[in-house]
Amino acid sequence: MSFNKNNPNPMGKIMGYLKQLSTEMGGSEQTRRGQGDEERLYRARGQKYARVPSRPTLSASTTCTSLATSCGSQGTLAPNYAAIPENVSTESSSEDEQDSFEKTRRHFQQLRQISLGNEFKYKMEMEIKSAKEENLRNSVPFVKQLSTDSNKVKTDYTINGDSQPYSAPTTQRLFLWTQIFAALAVSMGSMIVGFSSGYTSPALTSMNATLVFGKEENSWIGGIMPLAALVGGILGGPLIEVIGRKLTIIGTSIPFFIGWMLIANANGVAMVLTGRAFCGLSVGIGSLAFPVYLGETIQPEVRGSLGLLPTALGNTGILLAFFAGMKLEWRELAFLGGALAIPFFLLMIITPETPRWYVTKRRAEDARKALQWLRGKNVNIEKEMRELTRSQAESDLVRGNQFKQLFTKKYVPAVLISLGLMFFQQLSGINAVIFYASNIFESAGSTIDPKLSSVIIGIVNFMSTFIATVLIDRLGRKILLYISSVSMIVTLVTLGSYYYLQNVGVDVTAYGWLPLACLIIYVLGFSIGFGPIPWLMLGEILPSKIRGTAASLATGFNWTCTFIVTKTFPNIIVAIYMHGTVWLFSVICLIGLFFVIFFVPETRGKSLEEIEKKLTGGSRRTRNINSNKQMQNGC
User: Fold this and answer.
1) Are 284 and 296 in contact (CB under 8 A)?
2) How far is CA 210 from the centre of its chain?
3) What is the average pLDDT across 450-478?
4) What is the DSSP string of 59-121?
5) N or C: which terminus of the chain has fewer CB atoms within 10 Å of its end residue's CB?
6) What pLDDT sits at residue 550?
7) Counting runs of H as helices and runs of E as strands, what totals does the chain give?
C-alpha cells in the first residue's frame, strides 16, 4: 500500500486511505456490510492485517462530534484532526504503515457506525409513519376507546425527542357516527312502539268521558294491540327475508300512521279497536325487525350500547305518552302519535340495507357499499366482508325447510334461549304495570296522585335504560340479568305483602309511599336487564340461516305472552286478588333467574360469527356436513 507523503492535508490523507481500502476490498456495499471487519481485511490484505483492534476507539485528537460533522449530518465539514507527521524517507517502514492503517481502520469503523445509526433512525421513523397510517385504517371503535382511555397509562412512543405518533384518538369518527345515525333511525320506530304501549294509561280516562265503554271493552283496548302484534311478528319473519330489513322497517310507518289517524277520528269503539289493531301490526313487525337490523349493522364493540337505543327511545315514547296525557285529550294524543311516524319514515330512507342480507341474496357489491357506508369510507372492510361470506357459505351448506330446521339439534339451543328470555320478560308482569299503572296505584290506596305516580314510573323507565346503555358493555349481559331478576323478586314480594296486609284489614296508611317505591325499583330493575336484553340478544344469538324465521317465532311468542298478561290481568286479580297476582309474578322471576344462570350465554364483545360457532358447533359441524356429502357422492 502506497501513501501520499507530500499531501499536507491530514483529512485528504484519511479520505485517500478510505477510497483505496474500498477499492481494494471490492464487492457491493451490501456484500461488504454482510462480512465481518476481520474477514474482509484478511481476504483483501492477507494475514498481516487480519487481527485488528475490535474496539471502535478514536484518537485523542478526534471527537464524535467532528466525525458526525464529517458525515454531513449536522452541517459543513469542520474536522479537528492533529497533523499527521510525515516521513522524509521515500520508503515507509512496515510499522509506520501498520500504525497508519490501524488509525484509518478506526476512523472507517466509526464512520460506518454513525452511518448505520442514521439509517436505523430513518427506518424507525418510516415504521412509525406506516404504523400511524395503518392505525387510521384499522382502528378500534371510538366509544370503546373513550370509555377505557381514562383508566389507561399513556405509553410514550417518543423517539429522540420527536412528537408522540399517537397523540390523539386514532379512531375515525365517521364510521361511528353513521352507525349511531342508523341506530337512531331505527329507534324512532321503537319510540312509536313505546308511545302505543303507554297510550292507554292516560287516554282511557278521557276516552270514557267521550265514548261509552264497558270494562270488557276497556280490556280489549289494551289487549288488541299485543294480539295484532302477534300477527305482525309472524308476518315479519318472511318479510325481512324476502324484501329485506330496511324495506320492512320503512313499511311499518304506514300502518302506524293509518292506525293513529283512525283513533284520532274515531266516533265509536270499532274505529278505536281498528286503529289499535293497525298500530299493533306495526309493533309486531318492528319488534322483530329492529333488533335484527341493528345486530347486523353495528360492530361488536358498540353493539351493546347502540343496541339498547331502541329500548331507550321506546321508554321515551312511554314517558312522552304519560307527560302529554296530562295535558292532551285522547284525540290530540292520537294525532301526536301519527306525527311521530313521519320523521321515522324519512330517516329510514337514508339508512342502507344490512350487508348480511345482501350477502344472502348474492349481491356482494351492494353488501360492500352498505358496509363501507356503515364503517366509513376510509376504513378497510375486507376482513369483515370475508367473515360475512364465510359465515353465509357455512349456512348455505344446510338445506331444507327453515321452520323444521329451527328444532334440529344444531339450532334448537339458540331458539329455546330466545323463547325463554321472551317468556320471562313478559311473565314478569311489566306490561300489566305499564298498561294499568293508574289503576294499580288507585287500588293500593296510595297517598300520591295516580297520574303523577304513572309519570314517575315513566321517568324511571326512561332513565334506567341509559344506565343499562352505560353498563352493558362493561358488565355484560348476564350480570345485568342477574341484577334485574333479584331486584324484581324482592320488590314484587314486598309489594305483594303490602297488598296482603291491606286485604286482611291491617292499616297501611302510614306506608302509602311503599307501592310507588316498590314499583320504581321494580321498573328500574326490569329496564336495565330483562327489558332490553332479550331483544338485543334476539339479534345476537340466532344463527344467520334461521334468523328471520326464528326471530318471527320469538316475536310472535313474546306478543302472545303480552296479550295473555294484559288481557287476563284484571281477571287474575279477581281470582287470586292483587297480592296473589304479584306473588305469582315474583315466582316466575325466580325461575327466570335460574334460567339465566344455567342456560343463557354471555355475548359481550363477541362477533355474530363467534356466537354462532359457540351455539351451533361452527366449523366442526360444517366439516361433518362436507364429509357426509362426500360419502354420499362416493356411494
Assistant:
1) no
2) 48
3) 80
4) -TT--HHHHHHHTTSSSS----PPPPP---SSS--HHHHHHHHHHHHHHHHHHHHHHHHHHHH
5) C
6) 87
7) 28, 0
